[in-house]
Amino acid sequence: MNFMQFFGLNIYLDQNRYSTDSLTELIGIKNTLNKAKTVKRLSSENGKAHPIVDIAKRQLALKQLRPLLEDSLLKYDSLWYTKEVNYSSDSDRLYGAEEKLLGFALCIATGDTLKHLEGTDFKPNTQALRETPDKERFKRYWELLADCTRKTVEDYQDEAKKRTEKEPDSSRGFFSRLFKS
Q: Are 76 and 99 in contact (CB under 8 A)?
């Protein structure tokens, strides 16, 4: 995966609804995510539409983006956003691709659309993330993902704990369970 894979990427695909599958399909990693052991296991246990499955896909997608997010980026250029033609040079195209990568990763981490994030003045924005030290950038995205999914993961863990308490001890034999010694 490289930065130019994000050049011209339409991360505003569906501005009103976030979809991990739609976004990851844009960069060609949707099938890889769906074939991952964790995603398969969670899908079979909870169904494909369960929020925990989407969170697992988002985690794996961010891990796939890690090498790019930890790579050095061009310095923030406030004029790039106001230029009439901002893809005339190789560095402008690279800057644009980096912006798409940062926005893409922000969507994955927050589970929200860029349109909604921009409308709420969500912080950190791509400028702040661009200015984050290279080796800290992935960590910042991971923290965002953890913050945005904490409640869902905790609810899932509580739900799973309740399920295991209700289920009989499958490690014991049939007759041992039957006669509870």
A: no
**Interatomic CA distance for residues 115 and 106, integer angstroms:** 12
H or E element in which residue 57 lies: helix 51-69
- Residue spans of beta strands (DSSP E) within 72-144: none
Which residue type is seen at 130? R
Distance CA 139, CA 142 (A): 5
The CB density around residue 166, as the number of other CB atoms within 10 Å, is 7
Q: What are the residues whose beta carbons fall under 8 Å from the beta carbon of 59, sequence distance 6 or more? A: 145
Look up the pTM and report it.
Answer: 0.84
Say how far apart CA 70 and CA 137 lie, in whole Å: 6
Give the whole-angstrom CA distance, residue 83 versus residue 148: 34
**162 membership: H or E segment, kind and range:** helix 134-166
For the record, the structure tokens of 106 come out as 């922000």
Written as six digits, the tokens of 141 are 């995205």
Q: Residues 54-100: pLDDT tens digits?
A: 999 999 999 999 999 999 998 888 877 777 666 678 888 898 899 89
- Cα(175)–Cα(84) distance, integer angstroms: 77
Report d(CA 172, CA 180) in Å as an integer. 10
Q: Cα(first)–Cα(last) distance of the chain, in Å?
A: 57
